[in-house]
Design goal:
Helix content is about 35%, strand content about 25%. By secondary structure, it is an alpha/beta fold. The strands form 2 sheets. The protein has a 7-stranded mixed beta sheet, sandwiched between helices. A 6-stranded antiparallel beta sheet has the order 3-2-1-6-5-4, with helices on one face. Helix 7 links the parallel strand 10 and strand 11. Helix 7 crosses helix 9. The protein starts with a helix and ends in a 14-residue tail after the last helix.
């Protein structure tokens, strides 16, 4: 057993999401969204480096020495997997670990709207799950892929950096590919995937123009493609994809994206006030004919209105989802105000002045 495993055991017992190990500081973990110190000695650079190198693959250690940062996954059988990031900072080495549960939660476990599980049964198209870092995108995607794996008889390929949730093949054949270990880049893996008889492709992160372009192409040629972006609303997600392309290509991409897109889920996490844990508020855009026309005609600013009138299709605005969580007394007013879009709607729930004074 590696020395660092004791920290992971504590992380798991406390229900924390992240472990922070930094030279010159006490270890810390993020519990329900807030950093808490662990009662332990201040970490020295050599001590921490030895602890980190003990669990890192040899080629990753070499890469870290050369570049100053690395990503990889570490697993403790029977406990959980951990997404690791090592980096150099002013005082020495540091690392952050995100816990990835070994048990994949279902859409029902996560209390996701019914329309989310239906996305797993789509025959083709592009489905995007978006939100800021740490908003639960990977957990939602894992639940959808789990649903497809359970109900379909197809071939699923996941391309991630690193591999997070591990799916055991059920009705589907599932192949996991890790960037840096099994393939050089997301782009090369996506190109290869198109020749590997896939039905469903999961792209862990749509980082650049080439990856986004290939994902849209795959969705337009009969595959069901899932991907993630760091955007905060459905309309901004569409704009972000289009803005990645040179201006002379944007009209064509609008048309191609409009044909291929099926749904955008934009989510954010909240700390629960009624019990320990966190919950997600989701904005859901389903690509109806009206939505596709808005994308083609460069009228994405009208998407929120279309979501508001599209409840019968399973659509919902983020603010409506947040409002429902407040009414259930699951989340606090200050948290809701900080993460909502229409500040005037949620000002009534504030206990005092908003913490972000720039929004007054």
């Amino acid at each position: 057993m590696a020395k660092i495993d004791a920290f992971f055991q504590l992380l798991h017992e406390q229900g924390a999401s992240d472990l922070h190990l930094v030279t010159g500081q006490q270890p810390a973990m993020r519990v329900r969204g807030e950093i808490e110190r662990i009662k332990y000695d201040i970490l020295g650079n050599d001590e921490l480096k030895a602890m980190l190198y003990e669990i890192a693959p040899e080629y990753k250690v070499k890469q870290f020495e050369e570049t100053g940062d690395i990503d990889f996954a570490y697993e403790i059988p029977g406990l959980a997997r951990y997404r690791a990031n090592y980096f150099q900072q002013k005082w020495g080495v540091a690392a952050v670990f995100r816990e990835i549960p070994s048990k994949i939660l279902t859409c029902q476990d996560l209390a996701l709207p019914d329309v989310i599980s239906k996305l797993a049964l789509l025959p083709r198209g592009l489905v995007l799950v978006t939100g800021p870092t740490g908003s639960g995108k990977s957990t939602t995607l894992a639940a959808i892929i789990n649903e497809a794996n359970r109900l379909r008889k197809d071939h699923i390929i996941t391309i991630e950096d690193p591999i997070e949730f591990v799916h055991q093949s059920q009705g589907c054949i599932v192949n996991h590919r890790e960037v840096g270990m099994h393939t050089k880049t997301f782009t090369s893996a996506l190109r290869g995937a198109l020749r590997e008889d896939p039905d469903i492709i999961l792209v862990g992160e749509m980082r650049d123009l080439e990856t986004i372009s290939l994902a849209i192409e795959a969705a337009s040629t009969g595959h069901l493609v899932f991907g993630t972006l760091h955007t905060t609303s459905a309309a901004k997600t569409v704009d972000r994809i289009i803005e990645v392309f040179p201006s002379n290509q944007q009209a064509q991409i609008r048309s191609t994206l409009a044909d291929g897109i099926r749904a955008v889920i934009s989510q954010t996490l909240f700390k629960r006030v009624d019990k320990k844990g966190r919950c997600a508020a989701l904005e859901i855009l389903i690509a109806t004919a009206a939505v596709r026309n808005l994308i083609r005609e460069s009228k994405t600013f009208q998407i929120p209105s279309t979501i508001q009138t599209g409840k019968k299709y399973g659509m919902q605005l983020l603010d409506d989802a947040i409002f429902e969580l407040i009414n259930r007394r699951w989340i606090g007013g200050d948290d809701a105000y900080a993460k909502c879009n229409d500040k005037t709607r949620f000002r009534q729930f504030l206990k005092g002045a908003p913490t972000d004074f720039t929004e007054i």
